[in-house]
Design a protein that fits this description.
3 domains; mainly alpha
Length: about 350
Amino acid sequence: MALLETKTEARRSGAGASAFAMSLLRFLVTVVTTYLGLLAVTFFIGRVVPIDPALAIVGDRAPAHVVERVREELGLNLPLYQQFFIYVRQALSGDFGTSVLTTNPVMTDILRVFPATIELASVGTLIGAVFGIPLGVLAAVKRGSIADQIVRVIGLIGYSVPIFWLGLLALVFFYAKLNWVAYPGRVDIVYEYSFTPVTGFFLLDAAWQRQWDVVWDLFRHIILPGSLLGYFSLAYISRMTRSFMLNELSQEYIVAARAKGLSETRIIWFHALRNAAVPLVTVIALSYAGLLEGSVLTETIFSWPGLGLYITNSLQNADMNAVLGGTMVIGAVFIGINLLTDILYRTLDPRTRSR
């Protein structure tokens, strides 16, 4: 009997290890395939765009032999498949070429400006989650009421109104008229050299150095673009929270909890929302990734010196190395967050591990 139980347990362990290995293999294949697809898309976009990288470097008035020599140095005279393999090899090593606009390696520029984008997207996601989840819960609990309709209209506006139009209105009203916020940019020139950036996240650096006047100035600069992104994040998070909560509130365990005499507050916030929190983690992570990649217009409107503004300026100056490098970084971050979200979802919800 003991021998039979041992064999059964061994088979279960073997099956579990095999399932884990297959899941890990599928995960790796997904990562590699997605990233190679991203590399292919950015490469062919760079070749389709009617901008000659050689001319962008030497200028339109350069002699033909100089242009041809630069094309040979860049490998643009090689067959397309060879150019693609060279591009993949360089991209995988973090080499996206040199920026025509700044004359720095593109990756150096990206490492300099990307923390500003992360800081802005983090503030937006925080605002969206803090306000979006309670609004979604309220809409679900008061389904069909005026409160529900108001929350749904707020979400609809967030999905429908162009972000550049709303950003311009916000600047006119809160900056030009009321003077509640600072002018576009990240920090006032008076405080630009008052603290030493260490991590690239100015709010954290200034707070760590206890430069509270700088922290206040940074807050006055980030609050308006952060709130704008937060509003669009709120629209998505509140809508999904409402959907998840409606599903949970219709489950049998909610009926059983009410039958036991538990308070409605405890049922909503400690039972229904707790079970809805697992998919909400995915929603918040995807919202964060969306703000990282979708902050180009916001950064342009508010002159926020992040990756979005860097890509916009590079595109206007035909700096395709910088444009493609920035696109690759944003795409890689988006892929990474999606995969991390999938892992986190499987960790928090054991029911999905066998899928």
